[in-house]
Amino acid sequence: MDIENIRIGIVGLGYVGLPLACLFAKRYRVDGLEINHERVNNLLRAQDDTGEVDAATLTDRLQGNLHLTTNAEDLRDCNVYIICVSTPVDETNNPDLNPLRVASATVGGLLKKGDVVIYESSVFPGCTEQICVPMLGNRSGLTFNADYFVGYSPERINPGDKEHTVENITKIVSGSTPETLDFVEKLYGSVLTNGTCRASSIRVAEAAKVVENTQRDVNIALMNELCTVFRAMGISTTEVLDCASTKWNFLDVRPGLVGGHCIGVDPYYLIHGAWSYNVYPRLIMEARVINENMAYFVSGVLTKNMMNRRVHVVDSRILILGFAFKANCPDTRNTKVEDVYSCLRRITDHVSVYDPIVNRDEVAQRYHIQLLDNLEDHKGEFDAIILCVGHKEFMSMQFRPLLNENGILFDAMNVLPDADFYL
Question: What integer pLDDT is reported at residue 296 of this predicted model?
């Protein structure tokens, strides 16, 4: 396929798809498909609720090569399709491939001879060729690697990160044939500033993606476990890690809540893939258990310190600072602050949450939690405050006036200079 005569259709315009669409639209005609009508209407007004693309950039692309739609038929003239839908887990932590199946079926109904489909969604090794490719063929009636071709280039978006953007990271690329790999590499290389990394197969590229986040998950789980050990010993975990990090090859990973749609999800995809080969990755599985239970540990640390300070825990008033799954990001998907909230609600009905950057209506709808709209009206109200998310907005705020006379400030992120105690 001539790279100069391509028209790209991007399916899914969330954290991954929108920045990618804006990047490709600098050079190519891009048609973006999103099933959420409200999301498309906001984007057409140059409003990106995810905060990944600024209004000026979005306006410029919309006035140029970027066209947004909720109608799949508007992508029929495309010859390259890039699928960027979410790959969550269900209530039992098994992969939920429904969004991927729907997207594959949709694109399959649009395929023509010579078209290329590229997947960016995080999956277990083998998923693209075992599950997605057959759906493309069944819907299109075309023959794989004869009539249509498939590539895989896993997303590496880090929500809220303005330094490591899609344009300046190294992109892993793979293809179902050598020629497809060459094309995918050339396509992405035409808009990236830091080049690509060629994988010998789609399965290698899929594995590389889940390993990136599984490694982080395991490392954080180790620190979380050490945190429980050192707290039992009466030793400051922060001080221990500060000392240990003076060694040149020490990996300075800190304990904390592990949520979101990447680190808290991708290991489950790898576990699922391993199980299909009768392999039981015990370390990865145990890391997930440790990190999933960290909210209970954090809540327990708070209540224990409240009792030690002779603060009456039952019916106390507690304020949680932050509800996003990570700092400086409005995304609340799979946030473990919800678990902290649930734990504390078992003790007292008076648990409030404040987060200045998340969508309050979305939190109310998804989690049935009404966030405070301000803190000014709550001076002297709380028996305890716990910082769960280290938003930069919090760094310049004073929280002591919100506490009553015996109230305590617990910093679970180890970023506030005047906290009464830390994780």
Answer: 96
Strands 7-11, 382-387: pairing is: unpaired
**C-alpha span between 130 and 125 (Å, rounded):** 9
Query: H-helix or E-strand containing 33?
Result: strand 29-33
Sites in the chain below the pLDDT cut of 70: none
User: In this structure, are residues 43 and 6 in contact, taking their beta carbons and an 8 Å threshold?
Assistant: no
Separation of alpha carbons 390 and 386, rounded Å: 11
Tell me how far apart the alpha carbons of residues 156 and 177 are, in angstroms, rounded to a whole number: 23
CB contact set of 308 (below 8 Å; sequence gap of 6+): none
Contact 303, 386 (CB under 8 A): no
Tokens 């998340």 appear where? 358
* pTM for the model: 0.93
**Predicted local confidence at residue 181, as pLDDT:** 98
d(CA 318, CA 302) in angstroms, rounded, equals 10
From residue 337, alpha-carbon distances to 100, 243, 343, 386, 418 in Å are: 27, 29, 10, 11, 22
Element holding 288 (H helix, E strand): helix 282-292
- The residues assigned a catalytic role are 262
Q: Alpha-carbon distance 44 to 63, whole Å?
A: 10
Contact 181, 163 (CB under 8 A): no
- DSSP label at 261? T
Cα separation, 170 vs 154, in Å, equals: 11
Q: What is the rounded distance in angstroms from the CA atom of residue 382 to the CA atom of residue 365? A: 26
**Sign for the pseudo-dihedral over CA of 292, 286, 159, 398:** positive
Look-up: residue for tokens 């994988």? Answer: 199
